[in-house]
User: What shape does this take?
Amino acid sequence: MPAYCNSQVFAPHPSVTINDDLHENTPASEYDLNSFLPPPSEPLHTNLVRVEPLIPILHADDLHRAFSASPEKQNPDAYFYPFPKGRPYKMKSETLIYMEKQRRRTNLLTFAITDLNSNELAGTIALGCDPLQASLDVKLLGVKIFRKFRGTHVFLHASYLVLSYALDPVAKGGLGLVRVGWRTPPTNIQSQKAAEKLGFSREGIMR
Assistant: This one.
């Protein structure tokens, strides 16, 4: 059974440079997830996907291959590539810096999605919270399904696992929350359709 390290060290401005420790070779058992949200005690899985905390030594190589792939000409999908650049990365260090920035945001718990048919990394998904309300609700964030796995079982199965973990009672291994939200830019139509596919209801536009 995995033993995840999670110390919750708050960093008000998660600035990261190439000179920082990017944890490329930190063993998984020693990698500090640093999330206000506690991770599951072991990976979540269905018969088709596995969901587990995103850890550089396990997932950085595959994540970089996805982030450095050229976009399709007919569908640039700028939202797939990390904000704010919205373009492919050139160096692995960019992916490692991205992962470290995510780790330093204590309101996030980011997961890797593995397709069990191919045993390949298929994307990422995250839960995000307001620490003052984390006992009540969270948001589903950072859903990035790799091109090869779009339109397959991956999105629905991974979302089911993360939503179940968030909403299941603590006694059943979940977080015991009462609500999960989905926030997306008004221009990201693909994300809005994905939310509707999961049964989310549109509530309005944040200002």
